[in-house]
Specification:
about 800 residues; alpha+beta; Immunoglobulin-like; Coagulation Factor XIII, Chain A, domain 2; six-stranded mixed sheet; six-stranded antiparallel sheet; 14 helices; membrane; phosphoprotein
């Protein structure tokens, strides 16, 4: 710093730094220096009137002291301005005023930064600013000069959608305020350092979600022309289950970890007596998935202004996940021919599906069935911040005529009338639950809502279903939206058997009150176990509450009079299965149990028919029929062994290796109708995955995958699909043909990229054998982190000793 002393005494002196003052960046505020000059030990004297007269009369004798001969004291008094703000530019340049403008904006979007951590978005791939609504976030700005609240004005603009409008909530104008308040868009300066300021910005809990562009507008209080800075970086706003004011708020932290943050899960399949489970990679934080989910919203017909309501968002997404009528994500295929796509059973992750859909600019991916639709739906909802889970209903009814019953029709001879039997009962069906309040319904209907993306029936002209309140389903309040009657029939409809009369009319001959909605399953919170949530969907079977619920719902169906009939029954029939049930490649063995509950003998002819069935409940064709005369003594229980040889089904099976055994008959003495339908599957083997070596981030390891063909014949064109989030990218391994009872061993080499517990998932793709998969739990260690932790612990121990 230099002092300019070549001035007359008493002049004001300016101190200059290394940079210029005024309009150049980095300029320091000018420091004023008052310099007082006088001689040592000399007092200032006033010039009298006489001396002034004498000097005028004789200037040579009385000269004024030379102004250049003076001494400078070593005392310099530096007087700084009272405020850090610079002197107005107009004091230096009276006719110029420097307009305030923004030079740059830092959204503080690092994964490890305050914004991402506080908003629980640090797991998303990339360094964009991803935040949740109803919560404050920070940003920093560099200006061309210091900001003065006395002379400057500033506001932020956030815009989303193709035609942002303030009235629609898609163009948000955020003012600067002195104090932040909840439930409104506002910003406050929380730090200021020269030309840099830090803002804290608040968003309301009902804000529209999606991708926002940011701009900053500045002007002076005089109302002069404005300057606008457009940020090159965007902001992604998501739903917020951590915010009490958000309609998707979930108050249990463990449930939030499971239903929002867990990127893997379990999907259940099979039959109620043989429940299978497969691991599914939801991958909602994986690279490209958030972009794909936002693309899905953009591609839908929903206006951006509707994206603030999770009810609307979920309803639209249930339509967009299937490609039935809007070119959505997945093409459904239940034909068994997947030659021009991927077999639904081969998928084990949503990541490849969504990335492929996005990369192709919205070309539907082939193919999907219910568990694939559900897995993708879970991914999309969790990615957007809506708590969600995949749910499997065993013995799931498909009601096609809104009767709220599952109807089975027979002719006069008790042969099924296939052309009338459009209702069906699927071995299992997978849909989703999502969590939200329902302000559009009476109180008590918030919480879990059922939503189904599998295209089954149309809702308001579009293949979609839900969200339907589970509480409304449980109580039979099927008049509450959306699509509650259909979901109620899936889980709690009675199975009604009808027989054609000679005049062509039909009479109700039997009803099964416990035929559908069994073992409704989802992954348990915080573990790999199965949680049975049947009690959430229905009251205990046979209870008075359950019967009231069924009869309440039936009043709103197409056959409200169906429950006016009552019939006594004293013979019952059921089918039992030993252990986990029949295995693929062996004879299928079941037990038929008849009980006579009366004190009189009973006789009947039991008709049995077993048919190959798609898991949706659609029958492909009968492969075995027989008649069995049965005589029962009073109060006798009789067990009949039933066997289906391997040779009879080996070339007949379709996707899930499912079969349906139908039993029917009439009791001679009472004319009571006996009827029972039991579904079962032939269990397939698992892929055995064994990790080899220590799992360390950045270090190569391996895993051995072993499979044994359970069939006595060759499997053609076997393909393995392997994927592990944080372990390796999904890929195919072509194995080729595998001989009967042969064993295949595959060793995978990969380098873990993310620390912590991960899952390596593999599945087998083969036309002759489906639903073969496996999973291995692998805990990746970060060696560098372990070293840092060791030395940190070591230092703490040393300090404790000191």
């Amino acid at each position: 710093m230099t002092f300019d002393l070549s001035r007359m005494p008493g002049e004001r002196l300016t101190v200059r730094g290394d940079s210029e003052v005024g309009r150049f960046p980095g300029a320091a505020p000018p420091t004023r220096v008052e310099l007082t000059i006088h001689k040592e030990d000399e007092k200032k004297q006033e010039e009298g009137a006489c001396r002034r007269w004498f000097r005028k009369m004789c200037p040579c004798c009385c000269k004024r002291q030379n102004s250049t001969s003076y001494d400078v004291t070593d005392k310099v008094e530096v007087i700084k301005p009272s405020t850090p703000a610079p002197a107005p530019l107009t004091s230096l340049f009276p006719f110029t005023e420097l307009k305030l403008s923004v030079r740059s904006v830092d959204l503080l979007s690092s994964k490890t930064g305050q914004n991402r951590l506080e908003h629980h978005t640090e797991l998303y791939h990339g360094d964009e600013l991803i935040i949740r609504r109803g919560q404050t976030f920070q940003m920093e700005m560099e200006l061309n000069r210091p900001f003065s609240s006395d002379t400057d004005k500033m506001h932020l603009d956030l815009k989303t959608g193709p035609l942002p409008m303030v009235s629609k909530g898609t163009h948000v104008i955020i003012p600067l305020v002195d104090h932040l308040e909840d439930e409104r868009w506002e910003a406050k300066i929380v730090e200021q350092n020269d030309n840099k300021i830090k803002l804290s910005v608040n968003s309301p809990a009902g804000a529209v979600i999606g991708l926002y562009g940011l701009s900053v507008t500045t002007r002076s209080l005089k109302g002069d022309a404005t300057t606008t800075y457009k940020s090159p970086a965007n902001i992604v706003l998501l739903f917020n289950p951590w915010c009490e004011e958000d309609t998707v708020f979930m108050d249990d932290e463990e449930e939030r970890k499971e239903y929002v943050l867990n990127d893997t899960g379990r999907i259940y399949y099979g039959t109620e007596k043989q429940i299978g489970a497969r691991t599914w990679n939801f991958g909602q934080f994986h690279e490209g998935i958030l972009e794909a989910c936002l693309f899905l919203l953009e591609k839908s017909d929903m206006p951006p202004s509707g994206r603030g309501d999770p009810i609307n968002v979920v309803r639209v997404l249930s339509a967009m996940i299937n490609a039935q009528d809007d070119f959505g994500v997945l093409v459904g295929n239940w034909s068994g021919d997947y030659s021009d796509g991927v077999s639904p059973a081969a998928w084990s992750s949503s990541v490849e599906i969504l990335r492929k859909y996005h990369a192709s600019d919205g070309t539907p991916v082939s193919y999907g069935q219910c568990w694939v639709f559900s897995g993708v739906t879970t991914t999309v909802l969790r990615c957007l911040g809506i708590p969600a889970r995949s749910v499997t209903n065993f013995q799931s009814a498909h009601d096609t005529d809104v009767s709220l019953t599952t109807d089975v029709y027979f002719d006069e001879n008790m042969d099924p009338l296939d052309y009338l039997n459009s209702d069906s009962v699927w071995n299992f069906h997978v849909w989703n639950d999502c969590w939200m309040a329902r302000p559009d319904l009476p109180p008590g209907n918030g919480g879990w809502q059922a939503v189904d993306s599998t295209p089954q029936e149309t809702s308001q002209g579009i293949f979609r279903c839900g969200p339907a309140s589970i509480n409304a389903i449980r109580s039979g309040q099927v008049y509450l939206k959306h699509d509650t009657p259909f979901v109620f029939a899936e889980v709690n409809s009675d199975k009604i058997y009808w027989q054609r009369n000679l005049d062509g009319t039909f009479s109700k001959i039997h009803s099964e009150k416990k035929a559908v909605g069994h073992c409704i399953s989802t992954k348990a919170v915080g573990s790999e176990e199965r949680a049975d949530i049947t009690h959430l969907y229905k009251h205990p079977e046979g209870s008075e509450e359950e019967r009231i619920s069924v009869e309440t719902a039936s009043r709103y169906g197409s056959k409200p009079e169906v429950y006016s009939m009552a019939r006594a029954e004293d013979v019952c029939v059921e089918v039992r299965m030993e252990g986990e049930g029949p295995k693929m490649g062996a004879d299928a063995k079941l037990s038929i149990v008849l009980k006579n509950l009366s004190s009189e003998p009973r006789r009947t002819v039991l008709h049995s028919q077993v048919a190959v069935m798609y898991y949706t409940g659609v029958l492909r064709g009968a492969i075995k029929k027989e008649e069995m005369p049965v005589e029962l003594l009073p109060e006798e229980e009789k067990i009949i062994d039933w066997v289906l040889p391997y040779q009879q089904y080996q070339n007949q099976l379709v996707d899930q290796a499912a079969l349906m055994l139908t039993l029917s008959g009439r009791v001679t003495e009472t004319q009571q109708v006996l009827a029972n339908q039991t579904t079962f599957r032939l269990r397939t083997p698992d892929l055995n995955i064994m990790p080899l070596g220590e799992a360390v981030v950045g270090k190569e390891m391996a895993a051995k995958i072993t499979f044994t063909n359970p069939l006595p014949r060759t499997l053609k064109g076997v393909i393995f699909r392997v994927e592990g989030l944080g372990l390796q990218k999904g890929h195919e391994v072509v194995v080729g043909d595998v001989g009967g009872h042969s064993t295949v061993t595959l060793t995978e080499h990969f380098v873990p990229t993310q620390p912590g517990p991960r899952k390596l998932v593999a599945s087998l793709d083969c036309k002759q054998l489906t639903q073969v998969h496996g999973v291995a739990d692998i805990v990746n260690f970060d060696f560098k982190l372990r070293i840092l932790t060791f030395f940190s612990d070591f230092n703490l121990r040393i300090l404790s000793l000191i």
